[in-house]
Amino acid sequence: MGPPQPRLSQGQRGDTGNPVGHTFLVALAALPLHPPKDKHHRYLVGKMTKKTLVSLNFKGTNAIACQRESSWLDRVLSFLEMVTPKVIYRTDQSRSGTQAYHNTAVQWDYRPLSPLAMDMEIDPPNSSEQQPKAEDLFKAAEAGDASVFKSLSQKQLAEALSLRNDDARSVLHVAVSSSNSEVVKVLLAADESKNVINSVDEDGWSPLHSAASIGNSGIVELLLSKGADVNLKNGGGRSALHYAASKGWLEIAQILISHGAKVNLKDKVGCTPLHRAASTAKSQLCELLIEEGAEVDAVDRLGQTPLMSAVICYNQEVSLLLIRHGADVDVEDKEGYTVLGRASKEFRPLLIDAAKAMLEG
């Protein structure tokens, strides 16, 4: 003999003796897991649900109303057939056209869940609809965990790229400055990357500034191939070439110049990339920049030339190189000092000899 059926009044039965109602339910007697409440599975637990449950005498049950738009309902039914095999189901059509199942006897057939039932996954959260936490995405970008970003949908990648941390840096900024090429590749593959490629942080640094500064030529090429502005200035008025020059990244400087980097672009204090390379003793960079048209006697806001910068920093090799390329040793800065006037006693004789050799040559 089967389990007792709920007593229903005449107003609660249709012509076939089955319960009726405009909200259609799946009553889950012992289901331990709730499917995610995302936009694809809107649970209709409202006034009609409560009214129907009361009228059908479903006591102690976990009742859920679900639109039949995915495989979730079918999986629930399979679960119920395993856990409560005596349950009775029927389908019906609501006024809105939503199809659902009625369970009319599940409340009398409780039984302990088997390990299989406990482990059964009932419509697990859809990763494409659950945006990871911003903190986790920034950590993944810094750590170089490309798998985190590969698992995201295009929509999620777009949302991830729109995020900013306390320094107004995007996940692309963080991945670039951490030299994580694989993460950068995944992020740049997203359509939204075109809106972030030239975004700047609170100091005006773009991802290209960071890539040039750390010396990652692969990332520099990736960014340029996606439309990075090679002459974009940061808060200090410096372009990516300024940083490649000061750090001595010869290959990166070559890449930037081949993409149209302006070799005579000045920062806020009037320094060109040649000033930067000269002050940090990067002789190969100085040679490259001069060959590419850098002005040897360009002056900054203090009236100082790259040669003066080299002399002040006691960069002997660069100083002699600049003189060989025709740098003026007699030019005065705004304080009235010439190159020789800025040179130390030990350095001055070398500069004089180099200047004489140029005149005699």
Automatic annotation (TrEMBL):
SMART domains (UniProt xref): ANK
SUPFAM superfamilies (alphabetical): Ankyrin repeat (SSF48403)
Swiss-Prot/TrEMBL keywords: ANK repeat, Repeat
Source species, domain of life: Eukaryota
Pfam family, any one: Ank_4
Keyword Amino-acid biosynthesis tagged: no
Matching InterPro entries: Ankyrin_rpt, Ankyrin_rpt-contain_sf, Multifunctional_regulatory
UniProt name for this protein: Ankyrin repeat family protein
